[in-house]
Write a structure and sequence with these properties.
- With about 110 residues, this protein is α+β, with helices and mostly antiparallel strands.
- It has one domain (about 20-105).
- It has helices spanning about 1-15, 35-45, 50-60; strands at about 25-30, 65-75, 80, 85-90, 95-100, 105.
- The strands form two sheets. A four-stranded antiparallel β-sheet has the order 1-2-5-6. A two-stranded antiparallel sheet has the order 3-4.
- Helix 2 crosses helix 3.
- The longest helix has 13 residues, at about 1-15.
C-alpha cells in the first residue's frame, strides 16, 4: 500500500507543468530597492550615469543603483513612474547572467 501511495505521489509530481521564463538581454539600470529606483527616475535628465551617481550619493551607498549589461527574467509589474520627459516601468528582475566579454552565470 505504501509503495502504491509513493508511486502515485511521484507520478503527480512528475506531471506538474514546467513553466518557462522569457529571458531578456540588455543594458538596464538596476537599483536594490524601489525607493532608489523612483529617485533615479526623478533625477534622470537623459544621462543614466549622472542620475545613478546622484542617487548613490543620496543613499550613501555606492551600489544602490548601477547600469549593467545582463541577461535577466522580469518579475511582476510593480509600478509606473514618470519624470518630466520619460516614463519608466518598475519591475523586479532576477539576473541570470552578466556580460563582461561574454555572458557568464551570475551565481558562483
Amino acid at each position: 500500500m505504501k509503495t502504491a501511495l509513493i508511486v502515485a505521489i511521484l507520478s503527480l509530481i512528475t506531471c506538474l507543468p514546467a513553466h518557462a521564463y522569457e529571458t531578456e538581454i540588455g543594458a538596464v539600470t538596476i537599483c536594490d530597492t524601489q525607493r532608489p529606483a523612483e529617485r533615479y527616475i526623478q533625477v534622470f535628465d537623459g544621462n543614466p550615469r549622472t542620475a545613478i551617481r546622484a542617487v548613490n550619493i543620496e543613499e550613501n551607498d555606492p551600489n544602490a543603483c548601477a547600469l549593467a549589461d545582463v541577461s535577466y527574467v522580469q518579475g511582476p509589474h510593480v509600478g509606473m513612474t514618470r519624470s518630466s520627459s520619460h516614463a519608466f516601468r518598475i519591475v523586479p528582475i532576477v539576473v541570470v547572467g552578466v556580460r563582461r566579454h561574454r555572458f557568464s552565470p551570475s551565481f558562483g
